[in-house]
Automatic annotation (TrEMBL):
This is RNA polymerase sigma-70 factor, ECF subfamily. The keyword Transcription applies. It comes from Pustulibacterium marinum. Belongs to the sigma-70 factor family. ECF subfamily. GO terms for biological process: DNA-templated transcription initiation. Keywords: Sigma factor, Transcription, Transcription regulation. Residues 129-180 form the RNA polymerase sigma factor 70 region 4 type domain. PANTHER family: RNA POLYMERASE ECF-TYPE SIGMA FACTO (PTHR43133), RNA POLYMERASE SIGMA FACTOR SIGV (PTHR43133:SF60). GO terms for molecular function: DNA binding; sigma factor activity. InterPro entries: RNA_pol_sigma-70-like (IPR039425), RNA_pol_sigma-70_dom (IPR014284), RNA_pol_sigma70_r2 (IPR007627), RNA_pol_sigma70_r4_t2 (IPR013249), RNA_pol_sigma_r2 (IPR013325), RNA_pol_sigma_r3/r4-like (IPR013324), WH-like_DNA-bd_sf (IPR036388). Residues 29-92 form the RNA polymerase sigma-70 region domain. The keyword Transcription applies.
């Protein structure tokens, strides 16, 4: 069945009178044109379909305003284009609002790095336990641990302090840490 301009005009006139079959004919005739147009613009099948549905809905609501001097397909495409522009504006506005809102939220969500009284108490208790474990080590291991981790000396400084070669300092520290780990595991 060939679709002629006269047939389209006839169905437009019927649609203006509220004929549901005329609406269905126009929808079936122009669906692919409007959907294809939107698919190229949106590059998203769901958006293209939503806008196409909205296009026909708006066109059928306003069909009595259609001027027969114009091409019906052009009128539909214009409606479709305007709906797409509205959607893009709405999304940009929404994104801008969310971005501004997120920036505002970020200002108020500043993390407090200062330890709480509870954190300080836990650290002190853990330190007291650790010191108790260190006291179980032989005195020369206690000394290297004390110098390295509590006085924060370099290997070279420790070597000078205890007057031993740096390799001995490294071996003593390694051995002290292993022994300390074994003591902690037993508890």
């Amino acid at each position: 069945m060939e679709i002629t301009p006269e047939k389209i005009q006839h169905h437009i006139q019927l649609a203006k009178k509220g004929d549901q079959n005329a609406f269905r004919f126009l929808l079936d005739t122009y669906w692919n044109d409007v959907y294809g147009f939107q698919l190229v613009r949106t590059k998203n099948e769901n958006d293209a379909e939503d806008i196409t549905i909205q296009t026909f809905s708006r066109a059928f609501d306003k069909i009595d305003t259609f001027d027969d001097q114009y091409v019906f397909k052009t009128w539909l495409i214009t409606i479709s284009k305007n709906l797409h522009i509205d959607l893009v504006r709405k999304r940009k506005s929404s994104i801008r609002h969310k971005t501004i809102q997120n920036e505002d939220d970020a200002v108020y969500e500043v993390a407090d790095d200062a330890p709480t009284a509870e954190d300080i108490l836990i650290q002190e208790q853990n330190l007291a336990k650790l010191l108790k474990y260190i006291k179980r080590l032989k005195p020369h291991y206690q000394e290297v641990i004390q110098l390295r981790y509590f006085q924060e000396m370099t290997y070279e400084e420790i070597s000078d302090t205890i007057q031993e070669p740096m390799n001995n300092v490294k071996v003593k520290l390694l051995r002290a840490k292993k022994l300390l780990a074994e003591i902690i595991k037993k508890k």
